[in-house]
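At this stage, I put together a protein sequence along with its fold in token form, as given directly below:
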Amino acid sequence: MHTAVAQKPNVDSILQKVAIEKDEDKKVDLLVSLVSSEINNDPKWTIETGLKLLNQSKSENDNIELSVAYSFLGQGYRLLGNNIKALDYHHKGIAAAEKSNNLSVLAFAENQTAHIYKDRQEYDKAIDIYLSATSHAAKGKNEKIKSWGPLNLGGVYLSIGKLDSSLMYSQRAYENALKVNSIVDNPYLYSNLGGVQSKLGNAQLAVSYYNMAISQSIGSKNIRYLNIAYTGLAEHYQRFNQQDSCISYAKKAITVVKNTSFFYLSSKPAQLLTDIYEKNNCDSTLKYSKIFKTAVDSLTSVKTNQQIQLMTFEEDLRQQEVAGEKLKAEEERKLNIQYALITLGIIVLLTLYLLLSRSFITNAKLIEFFGVVALLIVFEFLNLLLHPFLERITHHSPILMLLALVCIAALLVPFHHKVEKWATSKLVEKNKEIRLAAAKKTIEQLETKVDDK
């Protein structure tokens, strides 16, 4: 994995390019290029970037930009430890992403939402959302986003002790990051791999991964990832009964986020130190237990828990309503297709009856009328049948959808003319035969009358 430090993006320059970009996929690529180490380390920059993008998205009425703006704002407030406000923005981001019908953007929004539940150690909920994000990203076109879900799933599965799953997803994230030369999340990835190797008993390899995470975190000045790496290494040394090293790195983990917006990340190392000092150092035990309580309370107070549970319930309800509306729309589409087929079948049968019946003469104008009606029904049938496919390949672009329908009509009209010409000629032949038969019958009747006389 590369060791270079990611450059801070020029936000204003990128937003100008986003504003004039017409291609949806290229616009998503530009927006994803805003994702740098700052989005995981600098809440002020993240919120400011989100606000700039929010203002631009509203002036352009663009759901892709709106969704990414909400995701940035949610991430910024998450970094500040305000999970309630963060989750509110993330839910808005998912709703805007669903309206945009862009799967990469939806994966972006879902991935950021799942972070809230991961931070709160609600791992089952986090896994569900990360898996959804991973699925949507795989169907989308942006390559960078494809590594985010596996990266975070690696971390969550490590936390719940599912080492095989953690290693599998971490390796997948590593491979995806290599493809696109992405180095933003390397420290977190290395910490995950270090944790897996530590729990598997591979001490030397684990320390090597943690040291790479620490080195890159220091190089990018990412105190959040540095805290995660120090905490992981402290847990590793506790696991291998190296108490002095455990104490050293746990203290480093607390110190690096002291007096910062990331103070809530002190909970794990403070708990480690509290457990160590519990037996023989009352002063230190009291000190670190207070740090632990303060850090935990900032994330898991009763009021916060209640609000987040309510917001989660409301979002789940909204998702169910959206799924219900999609199912209803799909059922209506299938029903309309059936009606179109039934109507077309009736017209075809009626036309064939008029063409084949020898009992009366049919007006050619009637055949032309039925032909036009049949053409319209066939066009509507194809429109209903192909509409989901056309939406998917045109990304809901009205111009491209119109062009696709014009192409379908261009194919149908010549075919309609050929069928109409054939039907008309058959009708003329039938009418001639009926008239000829009628004339013969009249002549025979006249001859019979003459003979009688």
About this structure: The radius of gyration is 34 Å. The chain has 18 helices and no strands. Residues 1-5 have pLDDT under 50 and may be disordered. The chain has two domains: 11-301, 316-452.
